[in-house]
């Protein structure tokens, strides 16, 4: 089970350890975004500092319906206590956890400032 908190902007935040496969990880605060279908997005500055390997380009549709080209990298995260290899999308926004990473888990959010975010594996 993983835990997070709702911040003063009513964003559900969790800490996620991310890094290059086989190397030490850093911890980042990431906003849970149920409208984001991939696994994780990170600013290019973090991707570069971690030395994440480039994987491919993909076309994505934003919330306003516009399409953009995303650069996708490979990374290792610790998710529910396990190492997991995932795609990471380069973005200008704050780190986001998407539905790809949440798939197979139950997400509960107490939607008030300081509320608890709970993520647990479905049985």
UniProtKB/TrEMBL annotation:
Domain of life: Bacteria
UniProt cross-references to InterPro entries, sorted A to Z: Peptidase_asp_AF0612 (IPR022274)
NCBIfam families in UniProt: clan_AA_DTGF (TIGR03698)
Record protein name field: Clan AA aspartic protease
Lineage per the UniProt record: Bacteria, Bacillati, Cyanobacteriota, Cyanophyceae, Oscillatoriophycideae
């Amino acid at each position: 089970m993983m835990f997070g908190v709702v911040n003063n902007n009513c964003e559900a935040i969790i800490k996620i350890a991310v890094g290059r496969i086989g190397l030490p990880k850093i911890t980042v605060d990431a906003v849970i975004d149920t409208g984001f279908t991939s696994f994780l997005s990170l600013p290019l500055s973090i991707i570069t500092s971690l030395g994440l390997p480039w994987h491919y380009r993909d076309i994505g549709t934003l919330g306003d319906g516009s399409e953009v080209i995303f650069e996708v990298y490979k990374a290792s995260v610790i998710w529910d206590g396990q190492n997991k290899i995932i795609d990471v999308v380069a973005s200008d926004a704050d780190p986001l956890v998407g539905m790809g990473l949440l798939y197979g888990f139950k997400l509960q959010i107490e939607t008030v400032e300081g509320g608890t975010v709970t993520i647990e594996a479905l049985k």
